[in-house]
Amino acid sequence: xxxxxxxYDNKSSTRTLVEFSNGTPKPDSEFQCxxxxxxxxxxxxxxxxxxLVVQGSHLKYVGNNYEDRHANPTASRYVLMEVDEKNQVGxxxxxxxxxxxxxxxxxxxxxxxxxxxxxxxxxxxERSFTERQDDxxxxxxSHRRKRAMVTRLRNKVKDSTDAVQTxxxxxxxxxxxxxxxxxxxxxxxxIIPCCKTAETVEDVYxxxxxxxxxxxxxxxxxxxxxxxxxxxxxxxxxxxxxxxGSRFIVEHAKNPALAIVQNSQIHTEYACCLQLMVCLIRLxxxxxxxxxxxxxxxxxxxxxxxxxxxxxFLDGYNRNRxxxxxxxxxxxxxxxxxxxxxxxxxxxGDMIKEAFSISQKKLSTHVRALGGNVNLLSKNGFKRxxxxxxLPLQFPNTAFKGRGQAH
Length: 407
Description:
Blueprint: E1 5-8, E2 15-20, E3 32-37, E4 50-55, E5 60-64, H1 67-71, E6 79-84, E7 89-103, H2 111-124, H3 129-140, H4 143-154, H5 162-173, H6 186-190, H7 207-210, H8 213-218, H9 220-223, H10 231-240, H11 247-254, H12 258-261, H13 264-285, H14 288-291, H15 302-312, H16 325-342, E8 346-348, H17 349-356, H18 360-369, E9 373-379, E10 382-388
Parallel strand pairs: 1-7, 2-7
Antiparallel strand pairs: 3-4, 4-5, 5-7, 6-7, 8-10, 9-10
């Protein structure tokens, strides 16, 4: 075997090295690539962070060059060697490594065709709506639901309620049951990952666990309008009404804390939080006709749109996507946690109610499910709602409702 002289090239630019997590592309594959760089160039922690978005003929991929490095600083590094066979010299180059993961979508479904197919199946099914629900409970139901079903069937009595039952079944058969949510499980589906053993209130719901880093960075340019806004800009926001013109957004953009204004990096992160809040307000109020449209959320930058569709919708990449109640609850929970981080974990609940058009009861339910407190303050005849997160966390008590038993 012939010897090769190795030379380390530290003057040329680094080479890009990618790995597809779901396989190896064919040699003749073609891809369209978009590379996003972190704008915080003055901060050595972020200046080298990049996000790569790759569009193939069938799938879209996304990856970054910093997650593995941050998670394991001693992880292996990759270098690339180019060999000149004529001169027997090998040049070694530094690389930027991206592990690309596919964003799984699905093809559009012909809704009318699917509806006709479902209607034909229902016409051929001689079971009543209740009987079909019982069959589902028998296979997929919890122990409590199965026990209730058995008791109901055992004590079933033929009486004058048959006419009412038939009418209810007719209504329910025509209803969209995919959007129904189990009342007992409503809070559980809304709760977001929580560190109950956190020693500081900041670590209970870390923002990095809720909002991906690459999503926040993609909002930096758009969020610049919230840094030292002019009076004319604020008036324009108010004229736009919901979202950007909400009192929460306007007041926080006009009157940030002094410690925020004095630090440009913190002020930029604060502005990105406001931009995320605008997005969450919009998501909470979006109508089904809007989010099922072909142009849904196309005004958002691509990484943000991908995150929105995958995080808050069922079948997000399908035109027939759905946003059930539990997903709306998730949006509101994200917004409350975001407001806490912006306001040192004591925020104005009235502004949240106005921004999301929700009742006091709904706000209180969400806040307590997150371990927070709702304080109703009264001063000079004016009432104000204050939403607080503090240690120790105070979650609502969930008692077992049995027949004369308490556990």
